[in-house]
Specification:
Elements (H helix, E strand, L loop, with lengths): L8 E6 L3 H16 L3 E2 L8 E6 L4 H15 L1 H4 L4 E6 H5 L1 H7 L5 E3 L7 H9 L4 E3 L21 E5 L1 E2 L10 H5 L3 E2 L2 H13 L4 E5 L8 H4 L4 H9 L6 E4 L9 H9 L3 E6 L7 H6 L6 H14 L4 E8 L6 H14 L3 E6 L17 H24 L5 E9 L5 E5 L11 E4 L9 E9 L4 E6 L5
Helix pairs in contact: 14-15
Bound molecules: FE3-S4 cluster.
Amino acid sequence: RKEIILPIRIAFVSLGCDKNLVDSEVMLGLLQKSGFALISDESQADVIVVNTCCFIQDAKEESIENILEMAQYKKTGHCKALIVTGCMAERYKEEILAEIPEVDGVVGTTGYEGIVEVVEEILKGKKIQKFADINIKIKEDYQRVLSTAGYFAYLKIAEGCDNKCTYCIIPQLRGSYRSRSIESLIKEAKALVNQGVKELILVAQDTTRYGIDLYGEKRLPQLLRELCKIEGLKWIRLLYCYPEEITDELIDVIAEEEKVCSYLDMPIQHANTSILKRMGRRSTREDLIHLINKLRKRIPDICLRTTLIVGFPGETDAEYEDLVQFVKEMKFDRLGVFTYSKEEGTAAAKMKGHISKKTKELRKDKIMKLQQSICEEKSAQCIGKTLEVIIDGKLPEENVYCGRTYRDAPEIDGMVFVNSDEELLSGDFIKVFIASANEYDLIGRIVDESGE
Ligand code: F3S
């Protein structure tokens, strides 16, 4: 008789931003390499890891809800170890262990590389806290398990943040800005492309500052040029660019390199100069207008995405209207709005003039409504054009596929719907003639190389 030892099963819940998702994928890689079985059904898992976020109130609530939901599997499922990792673990290490007794381990933002040992110790019956200096050098070489569909992947080019935005808690959780070397990024990008990745999405708290700590100068343009040389890679997309750090050299690379999408995510947060100053941002309203005009002139088909915060402490009606006017005039292609969240430990939390929740929500709704009509206009401008589309998947309806153009980052932007009798695979690139549109999505038909 042979006894069969089954591997320990681990399930993961990854919350928050795509930078956090990369950390989850690194942990998954380390666990898989050590012989653990990765599964998606939490009710069947022996170990559950919740990788958390806490940058605003809503994110904290979502993290707590998920931890509590997973804690239930200690009673109703197989769970023997519940581990909380990521930003909320870093911020509330003591509270989490003290207030949620089902939690067996907390791991900080730089402790995740030790996840295997944490799981092993907990399974021996220990309670574990694993934290390291938030400024430690980040590991360069690892094998991730991609949780994205396999044809696109995030590439985290740096950790931490040196900006001093007064509303933001993230530098206290993620430390100072630390770039990875160009060599390690190229090596990882090549490995991802060999696995089937066709679209790489560059992320960091601030992608535009890449290289400054390591090379004494910003090297994002050089990194992009090197990435473009990788055969098999089709698209490179840039997220989280700081307006102050967008140089002419970077604009040239986006304009000249075919693989770099004419797409720029540039969170400006506000457009009133006085609020920008109180937010600790370095741009003025005029600087922003100048930059946007420059980008559009040099890259006429550029798709600009931004995010805004409304209801910052002391935001007057006039300052808010200044922002509304800016949104009306600048016509971003994509735009998201957050209401200001008072985060203890930040400079803005101590400022005077906190705004009521109701006013903040009204201010957000008004801009979102305004943006909806701008998006409608922008989508209508795509009608009659033939655009390249990456296929994301098939809908339950017969022969209907969805995908994205260079104007759409996965999960945050719009989609393109097409009919095809021929089977298409996720990650296929096709040419689509756009026949109709609504505010966020496009509908089209496939055309062949000749445009027919
Ligand atoms: Fe949240 Fe941490 Fe990202 S606070 S937004 S998961 S860096």
